[in-house]
């Protein structure tokens, strides 16, 4: 039985990997060819979000070419319940555009909806100096009551997690409450350690 039905929009600059994330998530496929998205496409997938709840997701993959397709955003964003706001970890410009996309979404929808900030292509920044400081991305998300996740549409790293976290947020379920008490304790310890280090 499905408990929830959600529309998700994938937004962010061209070539950041929105289409690739969608196909990795829905079909476990990845292609290194770049086929530019014209307008928008969507795919559907059902996921289990808790032991007792599942959700039907309709995921709209929106073209990153803002100038060309921006005027269709009213139609594409309509009734969206949540968004993955995607940038490319190898290109700082795409991180600088994140706010433009968020503003566009809020303006079209007339309200804030849950989003998760995604730094994609993490497989490409393993052995290089990162052009974007992860603490900046984390800060951007946290200041807007959200979270930041790094993904790879190529390897699949964290892709399911990104959609799951967003679904939980759309359902109003705190993912913290789903964690086992032991896990929570471990995380508390880690956080304390980090804070001690900072001091
Ligand atoms: P638009 O449709 O123009 O908005 O672009 P998009 O955001 O949909 O980008 P798309 O998914 O088409 O990916 C652009 C290019 O980046 C393609 O060549 C992909 O193969 C590549 N790519 C996407 N995600 C990843 C990733 O996580 N790692 C690596 N190495 N390449 C990726
Ligand atoms: Mg695309």
Name the features.
199 residues; alpha/beta; Rossmann fold; 6-stranded mixed β-sheet; 9 helices; 41% helix; binds guanosine-5'-triphosphate; binds magnesium ion
What does this structure look like?
It is a single chain. The chain is α/β, with parallel strands linked by helices and 199 residues long. The chain has a single domain, classed as 3-Layer(aba) Sandwich (Rossmann fold), CATH 3.40.50.300. 41% of the residues lie in helices and 22% in strands. The protein contains nine helices and six strands; from the N terminus they run βαββααβααβαβααα. A six-stranded mixed beta sheet has the order 2-3-1-4-5-6, sandwiched between helices. α6 links the parallel β5 and β6 (147-151). The chain is globular, with a radius of gyration of 17 Å.
CATH-defined topology: Rossmann fold
The 3D shape can be described as globular
Give helix and strand order, one letter per element, not per position: EHEEHHEHHEHEHHH
Bound molecules: guanosine-5'-triphosphate, magnesium ion
CATH homologous superfamily identity:
P-loop containing nucleotide triphosphate hydrolases
Q: What oligomeric state best describes the polypeptide chains here?
A: single chain
Name the average pLDDT: 92
């Amino acid at each position: 039985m499905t408990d929830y039905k959600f529309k998700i929009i994938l937004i962010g600059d061209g070539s950041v990997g929105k289409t690739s994330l969608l196909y990795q998530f829905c079909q476990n496929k990845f292609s290194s060819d770049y086929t530019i998205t014209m307008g928008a496409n969507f795919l559907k997938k059902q996921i289990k979000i808790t032991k007792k709840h599942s959700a039907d997701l309709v995921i709209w993959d929106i073209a990153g070419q803002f100038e060309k397709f921006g005027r269709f955003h009213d139609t594409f964003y309509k009734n969206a319940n949540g968004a993955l706001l995607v940038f490319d970890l190898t290109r700082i410009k795409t991180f600088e555009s994140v706010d433009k996309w968020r503003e566009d979404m809020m303006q079209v929808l007339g309200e804030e909806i849950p989003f998760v900030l995604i730094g994609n292509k993490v497989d490409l920044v393993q052995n290089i100096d990162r052009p974007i400081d992860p603490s900046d991305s984390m800060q951007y998300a946290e200041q807007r009551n959200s979270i930041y996740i790094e993904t790879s549409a190529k390897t699949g790293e964290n892709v399911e997690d990104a959609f799951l976290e967003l679904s939980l947020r759309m359902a109003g379920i705190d993912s913290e409450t789903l964690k086992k008490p032991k896990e929570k304790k471990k995380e508390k310890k880690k956080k304390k350690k980090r804070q001690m280090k900072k001091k």
